[in-house]
């Protein structure tokens, strides 16, 4: 396929603008130019997309389907251009047409169809699948409202709806011919057939039409275009014939409205679980439409009987959110394909693989039996049977585990335990970083691991280096290319050749220069957004991620308050200036998390305007943290805060993005930080705090004594008292909840316990920063080792160990 030059792009965009808007280019707005550019991209994509699909069909390719309630894809214009090999050309074309590329790109709304790490991981995986030529597609929900837009008003988070579809979304194609019906509620009747098998009639159901919208997933310079298929909920039929009857008509409108709620909004909870019925409906809506669609395509394109399904299809479920796909496949195989239980089970258990993303108990999904039975009667019957057979199997074949049945059973204490269902039915169960997988095997899923050791495996997360290095940091990318060429683009581990330059002062200076330019750009952005001037010579210390107690933004704030107190006592303190940058959304119902946002903003409002700090301390809370904002911040970061309570962060993926952009990790031995440590060594990052075993040990023995630290450590006592006595805040109750949580609930996330080591790690980091060359060397070593964290490596491991698919 011929790549378009800047001239070609200009010509095509001009034609589009002339004919569609009947305008000259110079009269066009950024928005019109954006749609013109997107149209040109789509023109390029169309034949590649068709060809990819034809190839999969004609070669009867084995394919993987990634089922996920979240795909946090962000903006696509730049990554689509990059992957088509046209990003530079597009930048040039836009400039020559008299537009600022950035202003054109930002017309596109972020598709925020995800909360955080789990959803962004799904997006990176799709990029890697396509870029490595693998036949793999995503199935998700086309939420009309994505993750809420955050405003900060008087320091508080305020949530606004994210109506991202207000303007047409240029990347999606509605595919009405692929629509299908999803059924809820109703009555299940069973008849014994003459041959003894059961006939199932599921009647009087509520029916919803699932209509797919397809988004192309473009591989990097390889002509592969896979599909992200997002389902939208619609009424099965229009208004009734007798719509002359007003009453009836209004009733119908209410009904339509209730159906459209199904794909109405994304639940804003990250790593936490809420047992809301609408969420359960969303989950079944996704999996039923997706599994029906897979079977339909399989039959149409492969002309094989359903027995051959596991040879051609593997389904990866992204946490337990889509785990109802298991009983849904059983249902279709038995009730619609007329297979018996054993045959259906044999097929099902060869198809599913499950990824676990957390050990936090508050995130493990369980659904009340009553709710599931009412909403999904047939599905519940099937889960009940799976459970019955599973428990029988333990009773008879694993006598040694009889007493463990209550903690193994899928249905127990009035609840359906989704992780247990997923483990029992999947041929593979994986965690997302070594330490996380080990904790699953030894603690949370110990009993299951003993039953099925062969199912458990690790797949350390990754990020696409195309977006998170090449797209977001063009300066660093071209510097790396100047130094080691571009082999690493296709083989990111080749970044390791940078190591040869770790003592090359000239090279280190060049890296420093790039970082400084990126810092300046971020400083300008901050100024323009918030009117605050930050010192571009200060250390840019960044923590951007969802707000959670376990991620310990609070520890970060305590450090800032400590520095502020020091400066107040000694305004002439010799301290390298710091800029602390935060971005974080809190789940709307998560009170303590919102308090921490308020605290960060309150500290900012005090510190930033206090003359005694002499500009040495700045605290910036950037509102509405999302993928596009991350893309601006990460290239400019120098310290990457990855400070979760050890054992709590399954992997983290932000840590990898920062490392790849040359920031040094300030972190606990948690999640994938441990694997960064294994690569770069303790001398090239700042490790501090309790280890996972210590934390787990404390939990087993009822925690530690937070109060002792309060009593002994003046710095800690001062900070907590400041929170309690209203020194921060406009009225004196503002931060009491945080105070009480630490002292009266015994600091469940070990903030005080890790305070001193954290302060020391920061002091050490500051001392290293004074030695510019040393810092740059550490930074270079981090970039050099970051290739391991390309999601290309992760995907290759899924392919080799789980999916067994072939590149085309
Ligand atoms: N994660 Br469970 C989410 O982002 N949302 C969730 O609901 C659950 C987990 C995250 C983990 O917290 C993070 O450590 C991990 O890197 C990410 O999933 C991707 O695996």
Automatic annotation (TrEMBL):
Its main location: cytoplasm. Transmembrane segments: none annotated. The modification N6-(pyridoxal phosphate)lysine is found at residue 657. One of its GO terms (cellular component) is cytoplasm. Its EC number is 2.4.1.1. GO terms for molecular function: glycogen phosphorylase activity; pyridoxal phosphate binding. It is found in: Cytoplasm. InterPro entries: Glycg_phsphrylas, Glyco_trans_35, Pyridoxal_P_attach_site. It catalyses: [(1->4)-alpha-D-glucosyl](n) + phosphate = [(1->4)-alpha-D-glucosyl](n-1) + alpha-D-glucose 1-phosphate. Keywords: Allosteric enzyme, Carbohydrate metabolism, Cytoplasm, Glycosyltransferase, Pyridoxal phosphate, Transferase. Its cofactor is pyridoxal 5'-phosphate. One of its GO terms (biological process) is glycogen catabolic process. Coiled coil: none annotated. Belongs to the glycogen phosphorylase family. Allosteric enzyme that catalyzes the rate-limiting step in glycogen catabolism, the phosphorolytic cleavage of glycogen to produce glucose-1-phosphate, and plays a central role in maintaining cellular and organismal glucose homeostasis. NCBIfam families: P_ylase (TIGR02093). This is Alpha-1,4 glucan phosphorylase. It comes from Oceanobacillus indicireducens. The lineage of its organism: Bacteria, Bacillati, Bacillota, Bacilli, Bacillales.
């Amino acid at each position: 396929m011929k790549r378009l030059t800047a001239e070609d792009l200009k010509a095509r965009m001009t034609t589009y603008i002339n004919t569609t808007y009947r305008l000259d280019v110079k009269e066009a707005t950024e928005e019109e130019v954006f749609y013109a550019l997107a149209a040109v991209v789509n023109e390029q994509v169309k034949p590649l997309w068709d060809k990819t699909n034809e190839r999969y069909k004609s070669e009867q390719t084995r394919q993987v389907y990634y089922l996920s309630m979240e795909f946090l894809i962000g903006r696509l214009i730049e990554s689509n251009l990059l992957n088509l090999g046209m990003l530079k050309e597009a930048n040039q074309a836009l400039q020559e047409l008299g537009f600022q590329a950035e202003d054109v790109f930002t017309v596109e709304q972020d598709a925020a169809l995800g909360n955080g790490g789990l959803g962004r991981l799904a997006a990176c995986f799709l990029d890697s699948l396509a870029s490595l030529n693998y036949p793999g597609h995503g199935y998700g929900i086309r939420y009309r409202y994505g993750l809420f837009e955050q405003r900060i008003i008087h320091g508080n988070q305020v949530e606004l709806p994210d109506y991202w579809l207000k303007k047409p979304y240029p990347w999606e194609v509605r595919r009405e011919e692929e629509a299908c019906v999803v059924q809820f509620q109703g009555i299940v009747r069973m008849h014994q057939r003459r041959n003894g098998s059961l006939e199932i009639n599921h009647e009087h159901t509520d029916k919803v039409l699932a209509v797919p919208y397809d988004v192309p997933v473009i591989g990097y310079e390889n002509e592969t275009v896979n599909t992200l298929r997002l389902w939208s909920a619609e009424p099965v039929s229009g208004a009734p014939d007798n719509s002359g009857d007003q009453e009836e008509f209004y009733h119908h409108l209410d009904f339509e409205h209730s159906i459209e709620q199904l794909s109405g909004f994304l639940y804003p909870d990250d790593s936490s679980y809420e047992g809301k019925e609408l969420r359960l409906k969303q989950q079944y809506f996704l999996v039923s439409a997706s599994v029906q669609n897979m079977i339909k395509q399989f039959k149409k394109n492969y002309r094989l009987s359903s027995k051959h399904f596991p040879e051609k299809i593997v389904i990866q479920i992204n946490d337990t959110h889509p785990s109802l796909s298991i009983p849904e496949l059983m249902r279709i195989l038995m009730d619609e394909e007329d297979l018996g239980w054993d045959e259906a089970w044999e097929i099902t258990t060869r198809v599913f693989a499950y990824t676990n993303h957390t050990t936090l108990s508050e995130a493990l999904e369980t659904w009340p039996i009553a709710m599931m039975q009412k909403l999904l009667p047939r599905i519940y019957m099937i889960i009940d049977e799976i459970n019955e057979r599973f428990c029988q199997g333990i009773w008879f074949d694993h006598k040694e585990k009889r007493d463990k049945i209550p903690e193994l059973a899928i249905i127990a204490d009035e609840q359906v335990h989704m992780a247990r269902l997923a483990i029992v039915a999947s041929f593979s169960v994986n965690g997302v970083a070594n330490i996380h997988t080990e904790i699953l095997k030894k603690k949370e899923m110990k009993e299951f691991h003993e039953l099925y050791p062969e199912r458990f495996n690790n797949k350390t997360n990754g990020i696409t280096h195309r977006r998170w290095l090449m797209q977001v940091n063009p300066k660093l990318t071209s510097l790396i290319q100047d130094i080691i060429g571009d082999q690493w683009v296709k083989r990111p581990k080749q970044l390791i050749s940078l190591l040869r330059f770790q003592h090359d002062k000239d090279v280190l200076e060049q890296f420093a220069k790039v970082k400084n330019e990126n810092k300046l750009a971020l400083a300008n952005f901050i100024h323009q957004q918030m009117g605050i001037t930050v010192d571009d010579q200060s250390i840019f210390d960044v923590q951007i991620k969802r707000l959670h107690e376990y991620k310990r933004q609070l520890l970060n704030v305590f450090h800032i308050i400590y520095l502020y107190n020091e400066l107040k006592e000694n305004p002439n303190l010799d301290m390298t200036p710091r800029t602390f940058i935060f971005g974080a959304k809190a789940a709307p119902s998560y009170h303590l998390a919102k308090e921490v946002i308020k605290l960060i903003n309150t500290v900012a409002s005090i510190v930033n305007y206090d003359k005694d700090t002499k500009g040495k301390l700045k605290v910036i809370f950037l509102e509405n943290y999302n993928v596009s904002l991350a893309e601006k911040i990460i290239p400019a970061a120098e310290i990457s805060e990855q400070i979760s309570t050890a054992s709590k962060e399954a992997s983290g993926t932000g840590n990898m993005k920062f490392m790849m952009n040359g920031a040094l990790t300030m972190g606990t031995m948690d999640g994938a930080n441990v694997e960064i440590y294994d690569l770069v060594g303790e001398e090239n990052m700042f490790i501090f705090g309790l280890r996972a075993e210590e934390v787990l040990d404390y939990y087993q023995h009822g925690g530690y004594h937070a109060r002792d630290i309060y009593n002994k450590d003046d710095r800690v006592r001062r900070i907590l008292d400041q929170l309690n006595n209203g020194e921060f805040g406009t009225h004196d109750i503002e931060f009491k909840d945080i105070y009480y949580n630490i002292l009266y609930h015994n600091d469940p996330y070990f903030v005080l316990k890790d305070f001193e080591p954290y302060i020391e790690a920061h002091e050490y980091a500051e001392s290293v920063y004074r030695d510019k060359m040393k810092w740059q060397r550490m930074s270079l070593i981090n970039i050099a080792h970051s290739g391991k964290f390309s999601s290309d490596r992760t995907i290759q491991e899924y392919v080799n160990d789980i999916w067994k698919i072939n590149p085309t």
